[in-house]
Amino acid sequence: MGAISGNLGSCNFVQGRYGPYVRKRMARTDKDTERQIAARNRLRTLHLAWRNMSETERKTWRSAAQNQSFVNRLGLSRKMSGKQLFAKINLPRVAVDIPQFVEPPMPVLTPPPYDLTFTVALPNNYIISWEHDQPTWMHFIRLFTARTMSGTLVKPIKHWRFTWVASPPWETGNIKTYFDNQWGVPLVGEFVAVALQVWNTDMLPSPFVEATTFVTWP
Fold first, then answer.
1. What is the architecture, at CATH level 2, of domain 114-214?
2. What is the pTM of this model?
3. What is the pLDDT of residues 114-133, one digit of tens each?
């Protein structure tokens, strides 16, 4: 049982960094929604762009990725391939339809947002807000959300879903429609979260900043 992973009845078994754990199984969702099809199309665009590169161009990305790594869901560090680096840098650009980087850019990160807050007061208020030092017209945002199906604090949150890309200006807003369409309506007392990333199109995306909250009823 220690190595079990996947769904069994109403339970979902997961292998985490500190061993196996069990959580409530999420209801199956439609795998062909408009948003999901759009996400697959963005990945397909990047796959074709990578395939159409010359071998010299691909070697440049592989060389740039030599000192890059990522942490998988088990908390283990893994080296990044050239294609993974190409996709990581260019995926936000494809999402907002701006030209892709053909060569690896200088590794200058957009400054992260700060004072990020997230409040959920049922039935209609799912409010996020944040501050950022750059003018709003200079950066885009990427938003991920998480529904933990738990009434206790969960850290770190492992199950994030891409929710939204927005162009400027946008500094606060109600994400009820986006959240409910992806996760369903949360319960009072449930722990939910958002992760926000901003980027200036002349730089790399900023690190993600997270905000968490417990769902309330006004």
1. Sandwich (2.60)
2. 0.66
3. 999 999 999 999 999 998 88
Are the beta carbons of 143 and 175 closer than 8 angstroms?
Answer: yes
Beta strands in the chain (DSSP E): 6-8, 11-16, 19-24, 69-71, 77-79, 114-121, 125-131, 139-147, 161-166, 172-174, 191-200, 209-214
Tokens 């109600």 appear where? 174
Q: How confident is the model at residue 145 (pLDDT cuts 50, 70, 90)?
A: very high
Domain with CATH 2.60.40.10 in the chain: 114-214
Contacts of 127 (CB under 8 A, 6+ apart): 117, 118, 119, 120, 172, 173, 174, 175
pLDDT-derived band at 204, boundaries 50, 70, 90: confident
Backbone angles phi, psi at 54, to 5 degrees: -75, 160
Tokens for 5?
């992973």
Distance CA 77, CA 186 (A): 33
The closest of 131, 133, 117 to 203, measured between CA atoms, is 133
